[in-house]
TrEMBL record, chain A:
It comes from the Bacteria. The lineage of its organism: Bacteria, Pseudomonadati, Pseudomonadota, Alphaproteobacteria, Hyphomicrobiales. This is DUF1214 domain-containing protein. Residues 72-171 form the DUF1214 domain.
From TrEMBL, chain B:
It comes from the Bacteria. Keywords: Membrane, Transmembrane, Transmembrane helix. It comes from Pseudorhizobium tarimense. This is Membrane protein. It holds the Pfam family DUF1254. InterPro entries: DUF1254, UCP010244_IM.
Length: 195, 187
């Protein structure tokens, strides 16, 4: 005699549980469609516009971040190295190459809810295009590690995984119609543990 | 057994529907979106500088080399003018509507003489303004807004600590306020 209520309960539980879980997962996992992926770097040039897809609009409504306008810049985020393995603080990485054309850029490791200014922490926790050393052809090489490194060193937090953010300021890549050859610096794992 | 399978299929279809409904409607009822957070910063028509740690409005300045100010506007009563100028290596400004869609953005190289001077107005206000442009805004960029409210983000860069004084001056002197736009009209 309880068969029909039981079946209705199963249907409702799957509908509400699955619907809410899948929505939370989708909002957490992705910023939406329309990403530019260059190696490990990912950017969403249209996430702040009215043309953004419903997932991107939902994500930005829930995240409430202040996004960069198309004349301001474009933000690239990396959570993995070139091979797709997550970035871990136990390992050292080398970022080498060129950025797409941009007037200025900044590179830092992302920490939620807090700004890590290099002048406050005494470690080079963030770098920008004016402060780094370059090769004669304008390319650069940055070592990302918890240990001090010669030349360009980006210090990362003590433990856990981390994300890196490269913001290009005043860049034609933000309005890219695919005409510009975009090349991002390569993130390469150069060894784990204290060498 | 078939009935259980049928119930599960119904549940999955319901889950998919619910997923779509939440995704599509979230932007309309979210209380954590950027515009709500900017409003929580304080009064409209004033630039609020964002702190280095998450404030009670839920906003933070993430990039260690940038300084950011936000200003919520409402142009239903009259246009507002955004003005800033100063000796900084980089600045950029973006105007967003209440749904956080980008309406207009500009940086120091795309602005005339590196000075930020933008007037936000509704189409009706713009018609009135264009008939006789008031003296102070003859050089301004006029931006037509389809929606009356939203927010403005003003950023500047501090590539080295020595630039921070200039950046602070630039942001603290920035104006985002209504102005006398119907001075020649007789009532």
């Amino acid at each position: 005699m309880f068969r029909v209520p039981f079946l209705v309960a199963i249907a409702l539980a799957i509908a509400f549980g699955g619907g809410i879980w899948s929505t939370l997962w989708a909002l957490e996992a992705t910023t939406g469609f329309g990403a530019i992926r260059l190696g490990a770097w990912e950017a969403f040039p249209e996430a702040q516009t009215a043309k953004a897809d419903p997932y991107a609009k939902s994500h930005r409504a829930a995240a409430g971040a202040l996004l960069y306008g198309s004349a301001e810049g474009l933000t690239f985020t990396a959570v993995t190295d070139e091979t797709g393995a997550p970035l871990r603080t136990g390992c050292s990485y080398k970022i080498a190459g060129h950025t797409p054309p941009a007037r200025l850029w900044t590179l830092y490791t992302l920490q939620s809810g807090k700004t890590n200014r290099p002048q406050d922490s005494k470690l080079p926790v963030a770098l920008n295009s004016r402060s780094i050393l370059r090769h004669a052809d304008g390319s650069f090489e940055i070592q990302v590690s918890t240990d001090a490194k010669p030349r360009n060193w980006l210090a990362v937090p003590e433990r856990g995984r981390f994300r890196m953010r490269l913001t290009l300021l005043d860049t034609p890549a933000a309005g890219s119609s695919g005409l510009i050859d975009l090349s991002m610096p390569v993130i390469e794992n150069i060894g784990c543990g204290h060498a | 057994m078939l009935k259980v399978l049928f119930a599960v299929i119904t549940g999955v279809v319901g889950a998919a529907l619910l997923h779509l409904v939440i995704i599509l409607s979230l932007p309309y009822f979210s209380e954590k979106d950027a515009y709500t957070r900017v409003l929580a910063e304080g009064d409209r028509h004033v630039f609020h500088r964002l702190p280095d740690a998450l404030d009670r409005a839920g906003l933070v300045q993430n990039d260690p080399f940038m300084e950011t100010s936000v200003c919520a506007y409402d142009i239903s009563q009259g246009p507002i003018r955004v003005y800033a100028g100063g000796d900084v290596p980089f600045w950029s400004m973006a105007i967003y509507d209440a749904a956080s869609n980008e309406v207009f953005s500009i940086n120091d190289r795309t602005a005339a003489a590196g000075i930020l001077d933008v007037v936000l107005a509704t189409p009706v206000q713009l018609t009135v303004l264009r008939k006789s442009l008031p003296e102070p805004i003859t050089q301004s960029i006029l931006v037509e807004m389809q929606q009356a409210d939203g927010y403005v983000i003003l950023r500047t860069m501090v590539p080295q600590p020595s630039f921070s004084t200039n950046a602070s001056t630039f942001l603290s002197e920035a104006v985002c306020a209504p102005f006398d736009w119907r001075q020649r009209q007789q009532f």
